[in-house]
Specification:
- This protein has about 425 residues and is an alpha/beta fold.
- It has 2 domains: about 170 residues, Acetylglutamate kinase-like (Carbamate kinase, 3-Layer(aba) Sandwich), CATH 3.40.1160; about 150 residues, VC0802-like (2-Layer Sandwich), CATH 3.30.2130.10.
- It is built from 16 helices and 18 strands.
- An 8-stranded mixed beta sheet has the order 3-6-2-1-9-11-12-10, sandwiched between helices. A 6-stranded antiparallel beta sheet has the order 14-15-13-16-18-17.
- Helix 1 links the parallel strand 1 and strand 2.
- Helix 7 runs parallel beside helix 10 and helix 14 crosses helix 15.
- It is globular.
- The structure holds aspartic acid and magnesium ion.
- Magnesium ion (MG) binds next to loops.
- The site of aspartic acid has 12 residues, from loops.
């Protein structure tokens, strides 16, 4: 007998029919002899509706009241699910985050969980009940309701799984797993059966639609396996675990991309110690996030410095850079705010050379120019023209045969 935490998202709880369906899925797990804690999101669209109500009164609602308001969506779905289970003769009880004792810090609207009390959970499980917990909410030291940021029910589920030392944390959603790339962009995309925490975090642009990234970080820190599954289609889903547990590994796992990037290049800055720190310091003082950075010294004793920022912060970044002229002397600025980032992700590349060359060759043969490159142990990112994203993803997906089920030969590649 295992202890399983199952989290159901808003689309899985969108209607009473769907809530009934979730109830029968929970009962099927119970029937296999497992203990189950269920974490629920609000019914589909409900949190957005509540936010609109508050914003219709004022654009700056008091954060305390705002959290009281937006935490109610989960209370509706938790009790409806419990009513549905009880009506099917399955003993269940629902609890809010504060009732369970999900203790958070004070940061209203994006609080962090500090501790999950287990006494109520244990007591209810011991009684043989299904315990249903409202996701996305907790209570601070002063006893005020807090919420955990959009998508926060995933984090509630992982935190409860860790506190109870559950065997697995299952996240039920409306897709059947995590894909090698966005299946809306590329119909060849394949479901990934097994992915490491590290890769999942790097696949953020893909994965964030499925899991709140904070929940992956938390699971990774405590080694809690997460399984992403569909509520509507039966299947094994995608298991997110530590790398060592992944038996059939590929050289690369997936391709993430983001379209909303801008690149800024400063050239001909006269060389001096501390220059890079000065540039980055100014930019980060204005809370502009910098992503990729490349710097190189030229033969003329000057430095070229190139970086990318999210497109929405482009105008702000340019203004800061123009202000740097005073400190750095004259330099040329070249920019392009119509670029995208394509990232190849895979723990398999740690121990294998030639991944970058295969990727660059595939892009080159497709006639795609690379404007910037950065690499880490498990990721190679390139900046390309925004209009070429689809072609770039397609070419790289094809080059690494991500559309095929891994063959034994490919598995051997990464021993
Ligand atoms: N209901 C909340 C939201 O819409 C939390 C969640 O769904 O995880 O963001
Ligand atoms: Mg979600």
């Amino acid at each position: 007998m295992a202890l399983i935490v199952q989290k159901f998202g808003g689309s899985s709880l969108g209607t009473l029919d769907r809530i009934q369906h979730v109830a029968s899925k929970v009962m099927a797990t119970r029937a296999q002899g497992h203990d189950v804690v269920v974490v629920v999101s609000a019914m589909f669209g409900e949190t957005d509706r509540l936010i609109r109500l508050a914003n219709a009164i004022t654009h700056l609602p008091d954060p305390r009241e705002y959290d009281v308001l937006i935490s109610t969506g989960e209370q509706v779905s938790m009790s409806l699910l419990s009513i549905a289970l009880n009506a099917k003769n399955c003993d269940a009880r629902s609890f809010t985050g504060p009732q369970i004792g999900i203790q958070t810090d004070d940061v209203h609207t994006k609080a962090r969980i500090q501790e999950v009390k287990t006494d109520v959970l244990q007591r209810e499980l011991k009684q043989g009940r299904v315990v249903i917990v409202a996701g996305f909410q907790g209570v601070n030291e002063a006893g005020e309701v807090t919420t955990l940021g959009r998508g926060g029910s995933d984090t509630t589920a992982v935190a409860i799984a860790i506190a109870l030392k559950a065997d697995e944390c299952q996240i039920y959603t409306d897709v059947d797993g995590v894909y090698t790339t966005d299946p809306h962009l590329l119909s060849d995309a394949m479901m990934i059966p097994h992915i490491s925490f590290e890769e999942m975090l790097e696949m953020a642009s893909m994965g964030a639609k499925v899991l709140q990234m904070r929940s992956v970080e938390l699971a990774s820190r405590h080694n809690m396996p997460i399984r992403v599954l569909s509520t509507f289609i039966d299947g094994p889903g995608t298991l997110v675990t530590f790398e060592e547990k992944i038996m059939q590994r590929r050289l690369v796992t997936g391709i993430a991309f983001s379209r909303e990037e801008a690149i800024i290049s400063l050239s001909g800055i006269s060389r001096r110690i501390g220059l890079e720190g000065l540039i980055l310091d100014r930019i980060s003082q204005e809370a502009v996030e910098i992503d990729m950075i490349a710097q190189n010294a030229t033969a003329q004793d000057t430095v070229d410095f190139t970086f990318t920022v999210p497109r929405r912060e482009y105008a702000k970044a340019i203004k800061i850079i123009e202000g740097l002229n005073k400190d750095l002397g004259s330099f040329a600025i070249k920019t392009n705010d119509k670029v995208a980032k394509v990232s190849l992700v895979g723990v398999g590349m740690k121990s294998h050379a030639g991944v970058a060359s295969t990727m660059f060759k595939a892009l080159g043969e497709t006639g795609i120019g690379i404007q910037m490159v950065t690499t880490s142990e498990i990721k190679i990112s390139v900046i390309v023209d925004e209009t070429l994203v689809e072609q770039a993803v397609k070419a790289v997906h094809q080059a690494f045969e991500l559309h095929k089920i891994p063959s034994p030969k490919q598995e051997q590649l990464v021993e």
